[in-house]
Amino acid sequence: MSIAATNLSWGVGRKAILHDVSLRVQPGTILGLLGPNGSGKSSLLRLLAGLRRPDRGQVTLDGQDIAGMRRRDLARRVALVQQHAQTEMNVTVQEVVMLGRTPHRAPLAGCSTADMIAVERALEQVDMTAFRHESWQGLSGGERQRVQIARALAQQPRELFLDEPTNHLDIQHQLDLLRLVSRLGLTSIVALHDLNHAAMFCDRLLVLDQGRVVADGPPAEVLTQDLLADVFRVTCDFHHARDGRRHILFQ
Ligand SMILES: Nc1ncnc2c1ncn2[C@@H]1O[C@H](COP(=O)(O)OP(=O)(O)OP(=O)(O)O)[C@@H](O)[C@H]1O
Questions:
Q1: Distance 40 CA to ligand 1 centre (A)
Q2: Does residue 63 contact residue 40 with C-beta atoms inside 8 Å?
Q3: Protein residues with CB under 6 Å of any ligand 1 atom
Q4: What number does the ligand 1 atom closest to the CA of 35 have?
Q5: What is the rounded CA–CA span in Å between residue 139 and residue 188?
Q6: Where does the ABC transporter domain lie (predicted)?
């Protein structure tokens, strides 16, 4: 087992945000995290990445509780791209991506050849090499999103967590990004709003509603008319394509 969470609960003040959430992700597979706005997807990703401590429950990587891991060791292993990820304004694209190398570098050490190669490779993966010397400040929302993903890839994680990574991307770059995540072979957890993309690219789906897990399984078992009506308040039908894939048609 790569990453697992057991009975996670978390809240702020008196507000309970996540209740008793458990999940397991097999190495090299993609778990899609679904749920309406405010259902707790981003909060869960922050707990899984160790940015927040749960009030109850634990997160383990290969059986080891992340609460006992050093930050640097965790950062070498796990990368999270948050929604609306920001960075200092006065930097180039290459410098932003180089930040992903921080956990791999000794304090005050300069960039090594391995760092430069990892940055270049990450820029290539998100189709942003032509922008390497551009200022971060001048980028569009979608370009910034791709640079933040390159920064996470430069980190060379084994677990990659992406919070709505297709936000701001045009359709070509949405599909390119999801195909890239599929090809990487990392253990990935991806919060998505597009249910058809989730069904196309994820091995399993976990659905949150008001901070609780209401479904967890393969896409075809999870995305039923009943679930879409109960959780997302939409009615839908399914179109079965000739290649066997099933698409949700919203009514
Ligand atoms: N630091 C915080 N302080 C107070 N409330 C918070 C905090 N973080 C999250 N919340 C609340 O927890 C709930 C879940 O938020 P979260 O961002 O995890 O949901 P989400 O499923 O990612 O939503 P969306 O799809 O809109 O991005 C929301 O009601 C949010 O207001």
A1: 6
A2: no
A3: 12, 15, 17, 35, 37-43
A4: 21
A5: 26
A6: 3-235
3-state secondary structure of 42: helix
The number of domains in the chain is: 1
Ligand 1 centre to CA of 149 (Å) is 22
What's this model's pTM, rounded to 2 decimal places?
0.93
Residue 192, number of CB atoms within 10 A of its CB: 25
CA dihedral in degrees (40, 46, 51, 53; nearest 10)?
A: 50
CA-proximal residue: ligand 1, atom 7 (nearest): 12
- pLDDT score recorded for residue 50: 96
**Tally of CB atoms within 10 A around 151:** 26
How much distance in Å is there from the Cα of 43 to the middle of ligand 1?
6
Q: What CATH number is associated with residue 37?
A: 3.40.50.300
Q: Which of 35, 37, 44, 41 is nearest to 9 (CA)?
A: 44
Q: Tell whether the model's pLDDT for residue 170 goes beyond 80.
A: yes
* pLDDT tens column, 39-93: 999 999 999 999 999 999 999 999 999 999 999 999 999 999 998 766 667 899 9
- For β-strands 64-65 and 15-25, DSSP reports them as unpaired
- Expressed in angstroms and rounded, the spacing between residue 207 Cα and the centre of ligand 1 is 15
